[in-house]
Design a protein that fits this description.
Length: 323
């Protein structure tokens, strides 16, 4: 980086004759962006959270679901003391606990909404993401689809402790009836435990500006579990594969909006954010060239780390709103 910076400020650049000593910070920023950042950001478009199962067969998740009822090689036998856990968010595709059976189905009387802030999985405290919770709905009209997992009595203590920690950011346990999908003759509801984030918890976000604002937040957030958009796309993909024909307008509208941001806004927002950061470093007064190069290298590393794209996008969106 230092050699490239010195070359830009020296007798000339590869970009064209006469672009040497008189380069302005904006011009220097453009050359640095093209040389070090552009290729990485462009390559990142292939793995930036746009559902990584995009090219797999549409029925893969369903095939796997029907072929493997349990995720244990030697599952304990079912007993009357087992419990069922209902997942309607990331638990649908990411059950990181032992279970001995699983069923597709739904619960009556709720609506799924991206109304909960995520500061420990799909966001961080200073830039929270959005994840789902359930709101009361029409008991005879509204239903939420998901997956129920049967937990063996001998394993339920450890599993519930794990889920209590995993869902610690505002979620509470409740119990209700789960109905299998597709419906079976003389269906018998299953009593399940599920985790719901109530409006009283500190991370409840609500419908602030509804879909447009929520989509922008998902588009520009990431956390320890990955990009927020990945959570959205994985949920939409799972619903489409496991429950064909089921309608979730809120989820579908968010997918459309976030994909539009990725296609129409992301490329120039990333470029704008990097140019701003680079120019800020180059314009620092009394900063030796070697330290400028070191700061530029640190910036490049940050952009390459998980969540780097979202950090840039968040910054660019903030600049846009302030202007």
């Amino acid at each position: 980086m230092l050699g490239f910076l010195q070359g830009l400020r020296g007798s000339g650049t590869e970009a064209g004759a006469g672009d040497g000593p008189g380069l302005e910070p904006e011009q220097l920023s453009g050359h640095i962006y093209s040389e070090f950042f552009a290729e990485h950001l462009q390559a990142g478009k292939e793995t930036n959270g746009q559902c990584r199962t995009e090219d797999r067969p549409q029925s893969l998740l369903l095939d796997s679901f029907e072929a493997e009822a349990s995720n244990q090689v030697e599952a304990p036998l079912a007993t009357e003391n087992d419990v069922w856990i209902f997942g309607y968010g990331s638990l649908v595709w990411k059950a990181d606990f032992p279970y001995i059976d699983r069923r597709r189905g739904f619960v009556w009387g709720f609506k799924r909404r991206f109304y909960q802030h995520s500061i420990d999985h799909r966001g961080i405290p200073e830039r929270p993401g959005r994840v789902v919770t359930l709101l009361p709905g029409d008991p005879g009209q509204d239903r939420v689809y998901g997956v129920a997992y049967r937990i063996a009595a001998s394993q339920k203590g450890a599993v519930l402790d794990h889920l209590d920690y995993r869902e610690k950011n505002g979620y509470e346990r409740c119990s209700l009836e789960f109905h299998e999908y597709p419906s079976k003759p003389e269906p018998k509801p299953i009593q399940v435990i599920m985790y719901v984030a109530t409006q009283a918890n500190d991370s409840y976000a609500g419908n602030v500006w509804e879909v447009a604002s929520i989509a922008k937040q998902i588009f520009s957030s990431a956390g320890p579990s990955g990009p927020n958009r990945e959570y959205l796309f994985n949920l939409a993909k799972a619903m489409d594969q496991l429950f064909p024909g089921a309608v979730d307008e809120h989820l579908e509208e968010l997918v459309v909006n976030v994909k539009r941001h990725i296609t129409e806004d992301e490329p120039h927002l990333l470029r704008q954010a990097v140019l701003h950061e680079v120019a800020s470093i180059l314009q620092e007064k009394d900063l030796p060239e070697q330290e400028q190069a070191q700061k530029l290298e640190e910036l490049l590393k940050r952009c390459q780390q998980p969540g780097g794209r979202e950090w840039l996008l968040h910054g660019a969106l903030q600049q846009r709103s302030e202007t």
